[in-house]
Amino acid sequence: MSIHATRTVLALSFTVLATACGPKAVRGGEGTANPNLDQGAMSTTLDKVDIEDLVKKNSDALFASPFWARDVQQSGENPIVAIWPIENHTSEHLDDQMLNLLSQLETTLVNSAAVSVVSRERQAQMAEEVGVQQGAAFDPATAAAVGKQLGAKYYFTGKLTSTDERMKKERRVQYALFLQVLEVETSLIKFQHQSERTKAIVR
Q: Which fold has domain 48-201?
């Protein structure tokens, strides 16, 4: 075999080995060969599964509350609700996760068929018109002004907090999602609940 042919064979062999040993992309989720791919935690940061769990726990408590039964289901109407951005009180940069959380909450409320939900795009437009900066903390007076323009009767708001503990090479982060429903006209708290989720790295 010539030197050129030998080099070609070696190069091809190296490429095959590199491809076989290197990382590869896989598809996961329902209907794939890896249905449980989303379940494994890759870090202590909030992921899709954690967000779904936090929203579900708060939603379950909401739907089982006296407020939901009395003021929503027995009201004879589908009251209009708006969702104020959930504040991130953790030390982590979670912009994508917070958007996912808001979308999960919005979808859950829409699918309840018991309330009419103002789109977050429309709410952002109204907030801008009255001078509210994006991501601003919830302020009852400003929220009331925006809420009246939107025709909203209730506001959903809240915050995400975390407690971060480290010991040697171990780390534990305890997340808490606090959800609150306020009446736009009176600023009275009609419902509040907190759900928790813990992530850890242990060796």
A: Rossmann fold (3.40.50)
